[in-house]
Amino acid sequence: MKIFAIVLCMASPLIAQDALKSSLTFHASFDSSLDADFSKGDKACVIKKGKDLVPCVPNDEVKIVAGAGKFGGCLHFPKKGTTRPQFSGVNVLGYNDRSWSSTVSVWLKLTPDQDLEPGYCDPVQIVGDDGKKGFIFLEWSKDETPRYFRYAIRPLFHIWNPMNVQWADIPFDKRPMVQVERAPFSRDAWTHVVFTLSNINDKTAKPSGSLYLNGKLQGRIENWDLTFGWDPAQVALVLGASYVGHLDDLATFDRALTAAEVERLFKLDGGAGNLR
Fold this sequence. Notes:
- By secondary structure, the protein is α+β, with helices and mostly antiparallel strands.
- It is built from 4 helices and 17 strands.
- The chain has helices spanning 2-23, 112-115, 157-160, 259-267; strands at residues 24-28, 38-39, 46-49, 52-55, 63-65, 74-77, 86-88, 100-109, 122-127, 135-140, 149-154, 177-180, 191-200, 208-213, 216-221, 236-241, 245-253.
- The strands form 3 sheets. Strands 1, 2, 5, 6, 8, 13, 14, 15 and 17 form a 9-stranded antiparallel beta sheet that branches. A 6-stranded antiparallel beta sheet has the order 7-16-9-10-11-12. Strands 3-4 form a two-stranded antiparallel sheet.
- The radius of gyration is 18 Å and the shape is globular.
């Protein structure tokens, strides 16, 4: 019995890692390319040019910096610009109108109050064909000092904003978001950010979302009707909206990771690339 317990204890980390591996749908290391290293959908990194999507290539607003990442190379957004790299969410984020769950993981490095320019900053967004049909984002606030860091899940417009007022004018506790007043971001160290989505559009379960920083839960979005109306073919993962700083090791999973799995991902040697 004791031997069995020892074997089970030794096997548990491998089982846990296999569970993460089987749920991984996308990974971009940004070691040498903007395109993803692994994807269950399209690997191509693109940008919008008018109504078209064209390949995204490094430029003055987004660069690949060899050896500067948390793991290998990384993206660097040296200034506020209009280049917003994006990846198709088809078979990556798995959005659907019945019951949608997913997790996004990314590493960021910046000192927000020194590096960001005026205005909102969204390092990561999930968008669809219409912002009034849903909008998911990480953001730094524009007016507070120090700036607040937030994770927001905005469902159909009439649900979260029935009075049609500005986002900034809605009281904090009336917004579908998690707000962190003093988040641990710095130019001197990488910060791991994970956000989850659970049971979105599910009429038989309670929908929610969670935000984690460096493996620790910061808060949950719950007790909201999180109904979206997106066209699944138009859902995309977008990076760098007014962001100034470094970004690395972007990964997505086909379910909401548990708190223990998020902590394991945070501590994983080599990052999400080790799951491929």
